[in-house]
Amino acid sequence: MFVCDISKNTELTDVARLFYGDGFPDISVAENNGVFAVNVNGKTYEFTYTDPLFDIIPAEHKLGRLSKIALYDALVRYTDKSMPWGALTGVRPTKLFYECLRAGQSPEQAQQTMQNAYRVSESRAGILREITEAQKGKIYYAPEYYNLYVHIPYCTTRCTYCSFVSAPIGKNIEQSRAYVKLLCDEIIRSVDFLYAHGKKILSVYIGGGTPTALDETALNELLTAIGKLDCEYTCEAGRPDTVTAEKADIMKEHGVTRVCVNPQTLNDRTLAAIGRSHSAQQFYTAYDTIAARGFDINCDLIAGLDGETVEDFIKSFEGVRALSPQNITVHSLSKKNGSAIRYDDGENRQTSAMLEYALFNRGKYRPYYLYRQKRQAGNLENVGFSVIGKECVNNITTMEETVGVMACGAGAISKIVGDGNITRFANMRDVPLYMSRYEEKIAAKLDCFAGIFNKTDKCE
User: Fold this and answer.
1) What backbone torsions phi and psi does residue 21 show, to the nearest 5 degrees?
2) Would the pTM of this model clear 0.90, i.e. be above it?
3) How far apart are CA 367 and CA 397, in angstroms?
């Protein structure tokens, strides 16, 4: 027999938060001989899950997953609400879809399992099916391949929704120069280490923060350390006000193939409210600068920004779509820990309609990767769209955790993928700590990798 006050179980708490946020009522879940009893504020609901469709759940996960489904079913009855992702609370719902495929189900059967067993809505289950189709040929690679991730923890200003490791570069110029020098050393030593162990670089991704917040000299120094690699090579230029012709030329010279230019919205009033130091016109100018040099381009938009209407979002989405970038990523606003809006009350109730518009008015674009976050508006998702053939391999393999990651920089998290296990190593998140403990931590990181490569456990 299993009895649980859900406040003592993170997985069940996350289900309750879908309906109530942080202030959920007294709830318990019990299981006895296959009968699940969920008590919500003194009202009890009982469920049995004997249908063969639940046999798809691996035995070692059955109690936990059925407990979540039972809690979800009870709260749907109690609140008369349902959620687009049903009982799912994880970051990567595609993993469950792939689990169904590995168990021998067809894509059609896997979609039905997501809908009928996990209570995912038809539209979201359909998106998962589209994504797995888009990822064919771009998700699984030989074990010697690694993605290289490089983190730049500086931006021009800090957006209200941002929770990343990032600081205003204007107040940290000297620090940023010293940081880049150490970062270049970490990149060179890390890549050399991979090569020495017979590994190859599948893709490079320079993120942040805003890498193009660095001046031309520092950006050139950084890209020189990485080297000119013959692979998918992304550099974020997320703040349009940081894009110059000189920086675009530097990226082109060093082999960058893909650049992210992110308006988030084309509404100038909203841009000012969320702390972005650029206008919609500056985005268009930056886009033209990058497009003129032949880069593949991704543009990020955010659905659910405070004060925006569906019409505002449609204007932004259609404005970006008219430019025909290779990728468009639509994020549902998430009030993450560490962001200025973490404790703001309220939520843009039109977020769902905004995302629905993007999903069903995307023209030549198809979804190719997806992830979810806690405290996300409308319990929705972030979706990457691509024209066929331009799917970002780094986004796919990093999100699906099928390729290891050698990560460099403050707050960067390396991953070693193999034998059904994922080992993680996190760099110091605080920039001054990253710099002061640099030698200690890079040695520990490379020892961690060496331990796994040599079948010993040295990761901490």
Assistant:
1) 70, -145
2) yes
3) 15
Question: How many residues appear in the chain?
Answer: 460
Q: Residue 450 corresponds to which tokens in the numbers above? A: 């060496």
What stretch of H or E contains 383?
A: strand 382-386
C-alpha dihedral (65, 382, 156, 424), degrees to nearest 10 = 40
Q: Based on the number of CB atoms within 10 Å of its own CB, is 385 exposed (0-12), middle (13-18) or buried (19 or more)?
A: buried
Burial group, residue 281, by CB count within 10 angstroms (0-12, 13-18, 19+): exposed
382 is written with which tokens? 């972030």
Q: Which residues pair with 167 in a beta bridge?
A: 154
**Cα 205 versus chain centre, distance:** 13
Q: Which of 276, 291, 267 is nearest to 242 (CA)?
A: 276
**β 200-208/145-152 pair status:** parallel
pLDDT (tens, 9 = 90+) of the chain, 460 residues, equals 677 889 889 999 999 999 998 888 999 999 999 999 999 999 999 999 999 999 999 999 999 999 999 999 999 999 999 999 999 999 999 999 999 999 999 999 999 999 999 999 999 999 999 999 999 999 999 999 999 999 999 988 765 555 555 678 888 899 999 999 999 999 999 999 999 999 999 999 999 989 999 999 999 999 999 999 999 999 999 889 999 999 999 999 999 999 999 999 999 999 888 887 789 999 999 999 999 999 999 999 999 998 899 999 999 999 999 999 999 999 998 754 433 333 344 455 789 999 999 999 999 999 999 999 876 767 799 999 999 999 999 999 999 999 999 999 999 999 999 888 999 999 999 999 999 999 999 999 999 999 999 875 566 5
CA quadruple 126, 128, 134, 136: dihedral positive or negative? negative
Residues 6+ apart with CB under 8 A from 114: 86, 93, 96, 97, 100, 120, 124, 125, 128
Residue pair 219/164 in contact by the 8 Å Cβ criterion: no
Residue written as token pair 């609140």:
79
State the DSSP string of 210-235. Answer: -GGGS-HHHHHHHHHHH---SSEEEE
C-alpha–C-alpha distance, residues 126 and 321, integer Å:
22
Q: Which residues contact 156 (CB under 8 A, 6 or more apart)?
A: 168, 169, 170, 210, 213, 239, 241, 242, 277
